[in-house]
Request: fold
Amino acid sequence: MVVQKFKDMLSAKSVIRELSVKATQRGKEIGYDNVFDYSLGNPSVPVPKKFHDVIKRLLDETDPLMLHGYSESHGIAEVRQAVAESLARRFDIPYTMDDIFMTSGAAGAMAHAVRAIANPGEDIITFAPYFPEYNHYVGGAGVNLKVVPADTTSFQINFEAFEAMLSENTAAVLINTPNNPSGIVYSTETIQKLADILKKKSAENGRDIYIISDEPYREIVFEGVDSPCVSKFYDNTIVCYSFSKSLSLPGERIGYVAVNPACEDAETIVHMCTQISRGTGHNCPSSVIQLAVAEMLEETAELSVYETNMNILYEELTKLGFEIVKPGGTFYMFPKALEEDAKVFCEKALKYDLVLVPADSFGCPGFFRIAYCVQTEKVKRSIEAFRKFVETEYHK
Amino acid sequence: MVVQKFKDMLSAKSVIRELSVKATQRGKEIGYDNVFDYSLGNPSVPVPKKFHDVIKRLLDETDPLMLHGYSESHGIAEVRQAVAESLARRFDIPYTMDDIFMTSGAAGAMAHAVRAIANPGEDIITFAPYFPEYNHYVGGAGVNLKVVPADTTSFQINFEAFEAMLSENTAAVLINTPNNPSGIVYSTETIQKLADILKKKSAENGRDIYIISDEPYREIVFEGVDSPCVSKFYDNTIVCYSFSKSLSLPGERIGYVAVNPACEDAETIVHMCTQISRGTGHNCPSSVIQLAVAEMLEETAELSVYETNMNILYEELTKLGFEIVKPGGTFYMFPKALEEDAKVFCEKALKYDLVLVPADSFGCPGFFRIAYCVQTEKVKRSIEAFRKFVETEYHK
Reply:
């Protein structure tokens, strides 16, 4: 007599997960080095050695009862203080520790942000292409996720469709820039226009529409790309951050909610997060990991490899005839498939040991995602596989 | 326009938290050493040094991309395997890794267990005195928590009241043995009788009523005390475990769900937990912490101090005229207050720098909780404060 809703979810398999399993299986046959596995967004560069040094020092020098003791439900005070100071310095926004709530990665941050500002039955609007887990992050709180169709020429915002979707039932808008899966960074023009529309609509509705800004790729922006800080353009912005990508720590489940101090109810929202946690069983990330990242706030893994990989793939795939909007950040690229059904296209690619993800579940059929967080040497070797794939299947 | 429900929760302060703050404030005035702070269940003995050695070895010898990479959503396979083997060996129940789901402590485990087997609007029955956070663990899933009044003579189960409360709407029974706050361990007779009633009622209802067995104090059982393994008595048992108390790691947020392999849908429940996580933003505990506890499954902190403290307090407080059911485990004791209103009693105790918690929020008015996870030397010094308190206030 288990709960049917969750049992039913088991039959809906994740496309990405299934492809990853296929890649692993194929790897056992021909060696994983020979499988061009572009399926998963798992970072490919290690955390800086300093992170391990910090943990060892904490283990050696801190009273274990303090180090491993219950932290405040907001997160460890000195960690929140350090995060606030770093954000304030970098983005020139007067964050204090009262605006910071420590979470289990961006997923944990989103779970709190959504519940804090949207009632069950209200709408949160996001923009295709989008990370498919948003369906669960938003739906899990009983809130409706509405998806604005993509502007496939630029992967900026399709404002016409967006304005038509805004209503009195809109509690928030959820954006992800730099974007998974497109790799696109929203421009200053885009963010300014979004902020203007939301200010106007909030006034019309007599209630603030929030922006939830999901920013795990904030530190992975390529040379010369305009990457505006969303919170500078719109007061009612709640940032959901994760150290998973910037420090290559996805398994450690560490991130935070940062509420713009100019936001109405800023401090209240952070306190509310401690109440939300009680009902979801969250209760803070690991105390050792909290303390360790607090000393790594101005550091990142060696992220430049992602830009190197992007440039190789963009140049070579464009030559092979792919239409691609050039990524401005992340470790994703989002080309148009060479036939209408991207699932068929990606199925065929598997024959050439290329593991690509069709974008139907990202709300953008006809496109596919390349997660190029792999060794550059392998990226280079994959070009020949792409060439064979395209020539054999599409230039017969 | 934040969500009112969570905003309203901010005004309902936690009695325990408030008392802990008072204890800290008083500590600043007279030195914390002179405050007999019995308010919080924070362990007072450190994790074994081996835990730190294991973490250091993991940091030194594991590929950081593997060590800190995304783990499977069930938890790291080798960790689940180790947990299953340890449980199977210790309790002679054929657990396999398919029965284990890694969580952020017992709170995370309960959040998953409740959602897996109770639909919103159904009932979960628990027994006073009970841990007040159960209201949130259960209510946060939209499920009703029903509380059976205490049998204050033994703090075993009040079966008459329990049977009257069982209905077709009962999805599960939530027990906590050894118990917070009473310190009582349910006897074999109690567990057997509970199992018999549930088997009969499940057959009558045509649906299985589950036991959710919250077992963070499983390893803290005193000499000679009968402490039966619940899962051996009832197939449909889901254990929620935490390493917070046994290894003194509450801040690391690490525990698991262990579904009795004899349970109907055992493997399905564990898979369902991965789906539940997606909606609550949980997504696994820290990978380093998972791997480290996997090597500590047969170890505990030096827990004997709690029995030492219990014996001192039980003997001395009984002499002072307190009525106490002698604890069989945990680090809690649950005497009857010396006047009807335990809140007034505990307020008076503060004048003697004794920080005690009135049990109204535990569903048992007229009693108070002593959390004796403090240094034994301090426990001894506190006896004089208890004597002064009792003589001055109640033997005038």
User: Anything to note?
Assistant: Chain A has a mean pLDDT of 95. Residues 376-394 of chain A form the longest helix (19 residues). Chain A touches chain B through 77 residues (CB under 8 Å). Residues 244 and 250 of chain A are 4 Å apart (CA to CA).
